[in-house]
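Could you help me review a protein record that somebody else here produced? My question to you is simply how this chain folds and whether the tokens agree. Thanks in advance; the entry in question is below:
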Amino acid sequence: MSETISCRQTLAVTSHRILASDLNEHETVYGGALLSLLDGTASISASRFARSQCVTAALDQVNFIKPFVLNDSLCIESYVTGHGKRSLEVFVKVIGEHLDTGERFLGMTAFLTFVVLDKQVILPELSAETLEEKSLCADFQKREAYRRQKIAEQKKLQASLSLDFPWQS
């Protein structure tokens, strides 16, 4: 019988204060830096679930909802919301806080797919407890089917791409 792990057991939380060095020319957090932070936090959730080395395979449904500015803080929360045989999905939400007022806001959400490197690993069952977890886990199969469709389309596109450097002809 397979072990069962709750979404809560895969929860990873990181917090960061926004400094001037984090900002882009629009005086908001640079999106690429934020994606790097997300990937790092989500990888902890993936490892807590698989108890094995995992690699990021995809980052999708990235929604930048509200920008983070100087002196805000951001709290990244991630947890596993579904899995296949060797892949697993991690949901990430980023909650911002205006430190001067204490006002909190949803700044970003995303889903990341990780793949377990060790083909011998058997992933545990996943259980959801909170309303949020149940809602996200219930829609995992729909998101997975959509991802598979997009992967097939991407393979067709990749087959038609040139690998020549146009400036060297």
Notes: The first strand starts at residue 4 and ends at 6. The helical segments are 31-50, 131-138, 140-160.
